[in-house]
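Subgroup meeting minutes
Present: P.N., E.W., G.H.
Scribe: E.W.

1. P.N. recapped why we're keeping a running log of single-chain structure predictions: easier to compare across weeks, and new members can see raw inputs and outputs side by side.
2. G.H. added today's entry (41 aa).
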Amino acid sequence: MGPVLAIVGILAIAGGVQYYSNFVAKENAASKHFTASRDNR
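Output recorded in log:
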């Protein structure tokens, strides 16, 4: 049971990191786009 829990935990952490980094990348792109459009005006 222990190894199974470890594998599930690792998968959960990896998925969480991937989701978080994807979210951060979207936020960075949105803020870059916002500042670029603001500077153009």
